[in-house]
Amino acid sequence: MTVARFFAMLLLLLLAGCSSEGDQSQIVTEQSGKPALWKVTAKEGTGGTAWLFGTVHLLPEGTDWQGPLMDEAIRSSDGLVMEVTGLDDQRAVEGLFSAMGVNHDMPRLADRVGASERPGLDKAINAASVPVLTLDNMETWAAALTLSASISDGLGLSREAGVEQVLQHRYTADQKPVQGLETIQQQFSYFDTLPEKEQRAMLSVIVEGVGESRTKFQKMLDAWMAGDVDNLLTDANDGLLTSPLIRETLLDGRNRRWSDAIGKMIDRSERPFVAVGAGHMVGKGGMPELLSAKGYVVVRIQ
């Protein structure tokens, strides 16, 4: 399990979190889809244009989510904006993860969950195929992400088939710039700076969800493919996002900062195609709603 996949699991962690133990049937998509796509312009008709697209970081091979409207938006844009770049530099990412996530002074991982959660923790550890000693020497957030990343094993999901990878290849081939809204260190720091209580809550969500990953991811993927934003995160309120601090750190605060950044790009007459996790596009705190509240004209075009 490569460290780069931890970021690919962020949306999955919010939605389903958990190991794939006892849930090995593969995820499928039965037909072509039309995920939601928004176009954002300045109210006065001046300035640039942004396209907002909520992504799924890991997908089954052959998932058909592109189409004429997507192609036109990509052609009309002058660059790609993603959550983060640089994940292909495995050495740098793994070094950073080790520097921030390894702590030899932590108690055993089993002592960081309640007695009733230990059987689930054992199942998650077995599914992840990570030595217990390795997990014991991790910060709780790092151990939680390590276990969460195992969700993709046996489910037929691929980072190469994921939206960001496909888009990055397209923009690189067209010699258009690709930039990130955050750095890898920033993304790790969101977890690393959480109090231990919230880190253990993350671990508990993963442990409690053992065996449910396929069903929840399939539900999320079907909603995403259908452009059904109302049902995209129906499970989120039962998971990590029930914690106000975790929600603010991982979702709401980032949405506000990203919306500010995209608004400034539009004001500078830039034309970015913005592709970030689908969870960042949903609801009143989602980027389309935030940009609309700032006075930009936001139209859903797919």
Summed up, what is this model?
By secondary structure, this protein is of the alpha/beta class.
Order of helices and strands: HHEEEHEHHHHEHEHHHHEHE
Shape: globular
Query: How are the strands of the largest sheet arranged?
Result: 6-4-7-2-1-8
Q: How far is it from the N-terminal to the C-terminal residue, by CA? A: 35 Å
What percentage of amino acids are in beta strands? 5-15%
Mean pLDDT: 85
Helical stretch count? 13
* Class inferred from helices and paired strands: alpha/beta
Total E-strand runs: 8
Instruction: Specify the biggest β-sheet.
Output: 6 strands, mixed
Topology, element by element:
Blueprint: H1 4-8, H2 10-15, E1 37-41, E2 49-55, E3 59-60, H3 68-76, E4 79-84, H4 90-101, H5 118-128, H6 132-136, H7 140-148, E5 157-158, H8 163-173, E6 178-182, H9 184-192, H10 196-208, H11 213-225, H12 244-267, E7 272-277, H13 287-293, E8 297-300
Parallel strand pairs: 2-7, 4-6, 4-7
Antiparallel strand pairs: 1-2, 1-8, 3-5
